[in-house]
Every structure is written in C-alpha cells, then in structure tokens.
Amino acid sequence: xxxxxxxxxRWTFDHxxxxxxxxxxxxxxxxEYFERMxxxxxxxxxxxxxxxxxxxxxxGDYFLEETDITGTSVIIVRGLxxxxxxxxxxxxxxxxxxxxxxxGSVNGKLTCIYHGWAYSLSGKNVLITEREMFFDIDKxxxxxxxxxxxxxxxxxxxxxxxEPEETLQQHLGQEVMELFGDYPFETTxxxxxxxxxxxxxxxxxxxSQIDGYHLKYLxxxxxxxxxxxxxxxxxxxxxxxLLGKHGFGSFFGNHANITADxxxxxPVASMASKLGVTLATDTSSKKxxxxxxKGVNPARSKDWFFxxxxxxxxxxxxxxxxxxxxxxxxxxxxxxxxxxxxARYFAPPVDTHSLSGRLASEYNKYSLRDLWREDGNTTVGxxxxxxxxxxxxxxxxxxxxxxxxxxxxxxxxxxA
Length: 416
Known about the structure:
24% helix, globular
C-alpha cells in the first residue's frame, strides 16, 4: 500500500459516535474529574505494569508497583509454586510497609521489620510474634490483602479490585489478543528504561504517544525526514483501528530517508545504525514482512516506520519491527496536574562481548532519551497553557483519531 492510495480517506467518518467537533479538556484540568477517574478507572481497571514475567524469574522475586493516584503500594511476587500474585504492601498488624526496594527477592516469606509478623508468598500469615498476648486472635484479619494479577503475552497486569468486574482477557478483547498475541515478546529483553515525573496531567501525557502527527515536526532533529511523504504530504498513517477501549495506528516511514547514508552529516548515528538496531536501522530487512505478527504493519509496506497499540488506560506499545518495540507506562500522579512516565526499549539481547553491538546499544540509549525529552517538554508547556486558561477545547484532525477515541472511552468510564 502507498499513502497516496488513501486519497480522501477519513477514519473518523467510519465512527460516527466520535463526531468531529472540538474536544473538551475537562479531564486535563479538573480536580473533580481527577477524583472520579481515580475511583472509577484506576481502582477498578486492569493496569499494565510494563514489566515481564522474566523480570521475576525465581520464587521470592518481587517488584513494587507504586500507584500515586490511588496512594497504593503493591507487591508483585512469584510464589513457591511459580505463580505470580499481588498483595498490598501492608502488614495487617499496624500497616507497616513490608518491602522497600523497587526490585528484590525474599527467602520464602515476607517479614515485617516492625514487629516480625511474617507471611507466605501466597499471602497467608505464618507468624505472629508473641501470639499468646493478643485477644480473639482467631477473629483477626491476619492474611495480606490481595490484588488481582494476570498475564498477557508475558506482561504482568494488576487490578486493585480483588474481584474485578471483568477478566484481563475481557478487558483486552479478542481482537487485541488475536492481532498481537503472536508477536515474539518472549525473545526480547529490556535494553533501556527511563522514568520521569512530569508537571502535567495524565491525559496530556497519554496523548503524547498516541499521535504520529507530531513526529515530522517535533522530531526533525532526532528523526529527520523519517515520516515525510512527497506523494501524500498531509498524511502520515496507513491505518487506524478502534479495538473496543483500545486503539491502534500504523504509520508511514520514508524508507529512503530512514536508510540513507548519513555518514557525512551524522557519522556516529550512521555507524551505529549499521552495527546494531537503532531508529535508523532497516528493521524490515531482519525478517520477511510476511512473517511478522498479524497485527503489526498490516499494510505490509516497506515504507513503514512504526505502529502504536494503546491499551486503555495506561500502556502504549510502539512496534518498531519484527522483534523491537517500546513500552510506555503512563500513570497519573497524586494530583490532577502531575503524572509519571516509564519508557522502556525492548529488543533481543545484545552480545556484550561484541564491541559493535555494545556501541549501537549505547548510541540507541541516548538517542531515545533525547527523543523522549522532546516529547516530555511539550507536555509541561501544554499544561501551563491549560492552567492559564488560554484555551478550553482541542481541535483534532482526522489522524489524531486515537486521542479523540481515548478521551471518549475515558469520559464513558468516568461518567462524564
């Protein structure tokens, strides 16, 4: 497929419920909306941790999920039976935090440092010190408070409700699982992980990664000419799909510009892209396109740059090729105009004994950092304008359909 084949195509017209008028920014600026969102979305919906099962491979391995909007700290831990479970990071005696490290490992049980109460990795209380001194001990709530945990494609999700309104599979929907379930996630590992706390509302941050429109403008330095098409200069997308609560977009890449010889103007970038995988690497050459996951690059075009899969409410996959992708975990902060962002780059392991592979990996680490900084800077400025009351509605073009859809889904969930 060529972009020019789309002619006058408008995806928004395929979904009359989206409409085409201005979009309210109530969710971007309202403390009252934020409180409703906390209760109706983030306390009840499946949230992607952005972490994979191989990051806690052995019994007793755990990581913490600190969710600022709900004020909760959750332990995700692998049990002695190999099962991954989640519990509030709270001793049932006096509420003391049980573990403190972002990642760690415990030897068969979770022990409170305050008074020595201990719990098995399945959450059962196994020790109450000075037990005989307590009253009506059989009536006490002694086990850890559970949260729901499930896994899709190796990624760990949790739901603060111990009895969710829907399963993870129901939340994702059949189409998401069919289109992307065969992606080779299991062959990848984390190469880069950056985290930022930003002075912007969560919807502003969310929107920064469900829009391909900005790349050929904002990222002119970090991705020069990568999305510019002479045949269709006003287009950047091959396709959009609305997948229930979630959204998908597939985006054009100027193959000639992406793989051009940049050795005279950007010699380090040129060398790194030839030695290993960077944004300027011809990822389509690694594996025949007809062998890619069903949902990725559905146009099967050589002139392709990336796909976005947004999983409501908090996670974005950016597919860059057969087995290279980015995961963006985006969460609200403690108040309506604060948020946090964890961006992670996944790819097959690099041969650490190879100088060329290590050089490309190091270059990619810093080039991605610079690109994401460009995104982050726009979010803070946008929130300042919102706070100043300079504008009160957004005007979205057809290729920003994922933002329009995401806001519709959020408003429906919140009851706005």
